[in-house]
Automatic annotation (TrEMBL):
One of its GO terms (cellular component) is extracellular region. Its main location: cytoplasm. Belongs to the RNase T2 family. This is Ribonuclease T2-like. CDD domains: RNase_T2_euk (cd01061).
Amino acid sequence: MASSVPSLRTLSKLAVGGARLLLGGGQTVLGGTPATCPANSQLSCHNTTVVADLCCFNAPGGQLLQTQFWDTDPATGPDNSWTIHGLWPDHCDGTFDANCDSTRAYTNISAIISSFGKTDLLTYMQTYWKDYQGNDETFWEHEWGKHGTCISTLDPDCYTDHKPTEEVVDFFQKTVDLFKALPSYEWLSAAGIVPSTSATYTTQAIQNALAKNRPGVTVTLGCSSGALNEIWYHYDVRGSVQTGTFVPANPDGTKSTCAATGIKYLPKNGGGGGGTPTTTGSTPTGTSAPGTPFSGKGYLNVNVNGAKKGCIISGGTWYTTGTCATFTAAASGSGFSLTSSKGKCGVVSGALSCGSGVTATAFTAVNGQLAAGGNAAWSADAVASGSTQETVYAGTGHASTVNIVWQSV
């Protein structure tokens, strides 16, 4: 039920689902930060008295949902992790507002996050908050504009010395923090519920596996064509979204779309059968050995001194933790072209890059290694570590020399 609403800071209305009067006004916020809310703030969706400050009480969207995807076609994100869908403020009866402030429907989320120095947050989002079509930025813009602008405690008036767009960073940071505390893949695996092309599971078994970590409450399960593809974790909040306490809650309505039995949980990589999950991001599991000639689909693994150390991701940069991008190699002249979900790949200003505006380079293979201009040597300013991305340059003009090899998938 999308609707436009006035500034939630000044909202005065009767909450949907009960006679609970929510009045704007009141508190002075100190210190140039979000409101410091009292420890005994009322729990959203549970108040029985008038709430005089919507900077410390989420309304009318009093139930917050941290929603997660499991995308397999196309496979999105690490093979051993769910990905982020969003953080949604529902009314306490399952309805919701959407797109509440068109003046804050920003279209430069990456730039906003970077401007506040949150590069670690952005890097994490680039791995775990993925759009299945590869349009991450557009996806983030949608989630902020549709849902973030409807969270009352993120209203700019809830900040002293408000810096434009700082509430955007708070929205994405809180969503990521919640997601990190909800490792769905690990929780399901611990109960023997693992991706498989043949096994099926029951709704009760899935709910039981997740309830071991959130006793007393259930979640919303989403299925498509009989396969599990979404989990929604519900919370009521004591205080603000920025600094308050998220209390696990039952769903605010009947929303699950999975059958009671016969639920598929398909693997992202096309395999399956119940292997033990890894604990540090996605490790390529293709059946062809590194160095196989470049054709079809595969990963671009990076070797340092002959040992594999990470891989190339969709924009053309290198890191060592997380999911490796799938590239498509196709014959082109006497060599081949490469494309990723970002677009064509080429050498731009000396650096490997993939994107919609990149002119494709005709690469070749030299001793099973990726070569540009007949040279299979590449280099970077430093050896990649964790999720810190390093630009990879053609030739040996930078501090660390590497080679790039193919692994078919």
